[in-house]
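Figure caption, in words: inputs first, then the predicted bound structure.
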Amino acid sequence: MNDKIKVTIDGIECWTEEGKYIIDVAKENGIYIPSLCHMEGIKPAGSCRICNVQINGRNMTACSTPAADGMNIESNIPELEEMRKAIVEVMFVAGNHFCPACEKSGNCELQALGYRYQMMVPRFPYEFPEKGVNADSKYIYHDRNRCIICKRCVRSIMKDGKHVFALNGRGGEKLHVEIDTDLASQLTEAEAQEAMDICPVGAILKKERGYYSPIGERKFDKAPIGSEIENK
Amino acid sequence: MKDKVQNIIGEYQNDKNRLMDILIDIQAEFKCIPAEAIETIAGQLIMSKADVRQTLSFYHFFTTEPTGKYTVYLNDSVVAEMMGRNEIAKAFENEIGVKFGSVTDDGLVGLFNTADIGMNDQEPAALINGVPFTNLTISKVKELVAGFKAGREVKDMVGKCGDGMNADERIMSMVNSNCQRKHGSILCLEYEVGSALKRAVNITREAVIETMRSSNLRGRGGAGFPAGLKWEFCRKSGGDINYLVCNADEGEPGTFKDRVLLTEMPEQMFEGMVIAGYAIDADEGVLYLRAEYYYLKAYLEDVLQKMRNDNLLGDKILDVEGFNFDIRIQMGAGAYVCGEESALIESMEGKRGEPRNRPPFPVQSGYHNEPTVVNNVETLSTVVKIILHSADWFKAIGTRESAGTKVLSISGDCKNPGVYEVEYGISVNEMLEMVGATSVQAVQVAGPSGACIGPDKFNQTIAFEDLATGGAMIVIGKDRDLLKEVVLNYISFFIDESCGSCAPCRSLTLILKNKFLKLLNGYGTMKDIDELYSWGKYMKQANRCGLGQTAANPILTTIENFRPLYEALVKTDDEFVSEFNMDKAVEASCKYVDRIPNVH
Amino acid sequence: MSKPVVATTSLAGCFGCHMSLLDIDERILELIELVEFNKSPIDDIKTFTKQCDIGLIEGGCCNSENVHVLKDFRKNCKILVSVGECAIMGGLPALRNGIPIEECIREAYLDGPTVSLNEEQILPNDDELPMLLDKVYPCHEIVKIDYYLPGCPPRADLIWNALIALVTGDEMKLPYEVVKFD
Ligand SMILES: Cc1cc2nc3c(=O)[nH]c(=O)nc-3n(C[C@H](O)[C@H](O)[C@H](O)COP(=O)(O)O)c2cc1C
Ligand code: SF4
Ligand code: SF4
Ligand code: SF4
Ligand code: FES
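Bound structure (iron/sulfur cluster present):
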């Protein structure tokens, strides 16, 4: 096929088709680029900034930048790894993450990045911000304390063609994700489960059943996030 | 109410993309956007209520509670504070009896703070029901409040009109243009409206672009991208329709030169838009006007109508077959980040003003996903003179990498604040002399997103290759507390104005502020200064748009240029200082259980 | 050479971290050989009798007493280690941090579902009692902390590896399985 293009990621030559996002190209080639807001198949948000890679010395987010022929991409460099770790730490202090009491613990992508980067303590002071919860709809419990505003739910969860989740407010202190209670009340149990699965952290939980996998058998208990890509 | 709301939505053809306009009209009608209106909009535009609130809650001037029959938005920018806005705020509060951020019980007056309103050369200033009141004094406040109580029309309280076109009957505003150099070398040159456009349509579209390219005109909005190249990219994008947008969002605190260009020579800017529209083969142009400049809207609409009458706008412009181009004005609603070109486009489409991921760039996929050129007011105004006088004439002015002139908005501690058209290459020292600034501690170049420099750098020059600026120059006198009065205000500004998309821009800014406060409050260590600096660097690396990338600049550039001010805040050699205060920490619980704290 | 001296305490914690320390199983015998314990619930020494090398802190600070003990540890230990989520970030007790202290006290002594014997509506206010802080503080906001061992509780292997590293000066082993936040 001659419409294949070649990019180099951390020195590894990768062949792919035009238009694919760098993060997906990397994945196909066994390279893990850390990410949080990215979700294959939906419009990129570029909001967590963790997937920043360097292309010609410029930082670009791998989840939103399409691969172009001849691109030389650097991802696994100390400067970026340091920044990624810092962003993870920012997220821990900017919310209220009581992992021991969180249903998503062990299956949470933010926590998993904390593990991958061996975060012993965030370098930033804890803020303990006041954030609300919304449990008004039948199946969904939305806890803003754990929401990292990755916008996965905002981008993807619809009911009758309308957005169930939306941003609200602007600015560092006011911005949050709001759930449209009317619309959320119409979600079926399966749709609620889907919403929970889309959320990378424990901000969207499906009511009625929790802690379904025992400690030791959860997604990130034994191997770091990304190792499933790296070890393929 | 429902009928009124439905009518408003109908006026915009039930078009979701016009949600901004719909909300603006509803806010004007009801002094807020009530829950019932949200329900009606959601129903009619087939979106969830949360989705409507998603856009609504982004903009400072949209509210869900009524803001009072008289709504006062008092500027709280750095220069406003320097010029005494806090006394003015107190005067308002005393006269009216409510605090800022609230409305009187009878719904008569609402007092609110707002970020820079583009009047830095005549602070303290406020917008009252959209009408600017500048150079406020305590007695003026008293007079205003008396007027509120007597039910007077806001316009009638303006009093004496300002200079230049501000006194025109279509504006009648007390704002002053303060054009300090009336006979500047490019923009302020007199010319006959329409003459440049006549020249342009006599050459090919490609030739117009070629003229721009060879003139080396670079964008005046801040980033300095070559205008001709941008136009060429757009032309070559091969879209169905191309759009031309003039960016008049002017939100960078300390910048007000676009306001003056809009007031004093709108024809020049509009003509520049038409020329650009011709060059890129666009049918539609949009002027994105910040909400704070609403008082100019009727005037600008009238200018546009005149141009239509003169065949300078509309169908078959200057009788050129197939050259149809019209301009509409899109109002903003209070969001600094909407000045970022892709955020501006999102806003024009009725959404939150969140900058887009790039690529694709607006010239590839902009307004309605079609190729779009966004240029600053000053850039487009300059186009006219380049067409009239030639690229070579233009190139001869300024420096090699920065051709032409720059309109500076100069404010702060100086004798003659206002707007100055200067040649690129002027040094900061020369500038300070020009504005009558003596005893200067620092100059904030290009507003908060720029750099704060001290006297050791005043020999540097204003040019893209040296000190780049979108135009804001704020002079900070020797007696000011630079960190407390300037830097802290800017940090808070960025926190409020962040669109919130990027995690570091949303959250790290708050962390930086707390760290900065730790130092200001006397709990800092030398290590804190270093951490503040290294954490600030992440902002540059990580964020998507210019706002987040520069949001730490007030901290970074003052640590670089004024480190002794920080070190003076450190009271100890200890590596660790805790902010924990036992007295404070136990106060509330002891009080509640009725016990005298025994802290030893 | 004398053995390194270790002190431990539980502030606003649940003793789970101490349990985890004991969970090193038979290695406890090895530990006794390696170090000497001073002030600690393990040997029930109530006050410092000498300068210590390592202080292990479980729990964050929820009241004035916690703060005093923590500062006392800082004074008497060369190296302080925050052990467990509560010491590091307040842990479960810090769930109250978003709730005004008045409401917490009311819930605990007046309104809560488990309150049954407080007909006179007494709020404890004896001078001898520790005073409640406005929120639960991570230890490192009050004194300088040198190392952190996350987990709720930290895995026994993590505590073991850390102690060995501190005592021997070797680099600490951190296999993936031992760094966990729950
Ligand atoms: C946060 C932010 C705010 C901006 N505000 C403005 C503005 O108010 N006016 C403006 O012309 N450009 C502004 N810009 C720059 C625009 O993104 C864009 O570069 C400019 O409008 C292009 O026009 P020019 O090439 O003619 O300068 C801003 C950029 C950022 C990142
Ligand atoms: S969402 Fe993730 S990081 Fe946050 S508390 Fe739950 S498990 Fe921990
Ligand atoms: S609720 Fe979950 S999916 Fe939605 S923005 Fe928050 S973290 Fe992301
Ligand atoms: S840097 Fe800040 S303002 Fe810019 S897109 Fe990101 S969050 Fe929004
Ligand atoms: S995964 Fe790319 S920015 Fe979040």
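The mean pLDDT of chain B is 97.
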